[in-house]
Request: fold
Amino acid sequence: MTQQQYLPRRKTRWGSIGFFVLIHSVTFIIAPWYAVVNGVSAFTLWLTALYGLATILAISMGYHRLFSHAAFKAHPFIKFLCLFFGGATFQQSALKWSSLHRRHHQLTDTPEDPYNIQFGFWYAHMGWILFWRQPVDYLNVKDLQKDPMVEHQHRHFQYWAIGAGVAVPVLIGALAGHALEALIFAVAVRMTLIFHFTFFINSYAHTFGTRNFDAVSSARDNWLGALLTNGEGYHNFHHAFPADYRNGIRWYHWDPAKWLIFACSKVGLTTDLRRSSDERIQEARTRAALAHQAAKAVV
Reply:
């Protein structure tokens, strides 16, 4: 694929717009109305919270750090869970997600960057999905195409997404006598929130915060961003060291995926955790500080 073919093309994607309007309408209109009129069972609230946690971790730990960056290796069971709950987010297959994300790192802040913050906060947050056609070059994910499980999820993504994202939570809710509540809260509300938690990585984390490791990249480190993205907010560090299994390098940095990957390693479910050396991290800090000083001197 030539560089010109990497460029997104303006296209109103009515299917995606309709889907987003639907789940946002349920989340912000129907769900509050239902809660006021009927109340919401504790079972449904727990189901929504736990299913939401599982799906956001599947994106952070699985789609992002395992598949996109190969920051660690995972037992097939962990890999399946990441693909299952990742599919439940309706954020495309792990293969397509990883291809776009690798291109984002390769071409950050250039016109070929699929969610380029230079096109504006809205574009990076949602516009790139709703109003632009993003080319996908699967040549950059040949390693993932060799994995039968990843390839199966890609070829049959609609079944994975509907099964994991709709059928399973509704079935669980139905078994407890709360099928409609599960559809409203554990499907639509959960999906809306997870979308925006993920989108904030592309928008908020490229707009607000500090650049302590890479003074050139638009990616920023921000503790609030870490909360908004459930652990992906130390984004400047991530862009400087994308293969590191951590996002927040301090023990107190909010990064649930880091803690889960590390915990799984203690029972053999994850191995080969990649971690940047303290020397390389300090060198990056020094270079960034010198660059910031030079920029101030010019001003």
Residues 115 and 131 are 12 Å apart (CA to CA). Residues 3-298 form one domain.
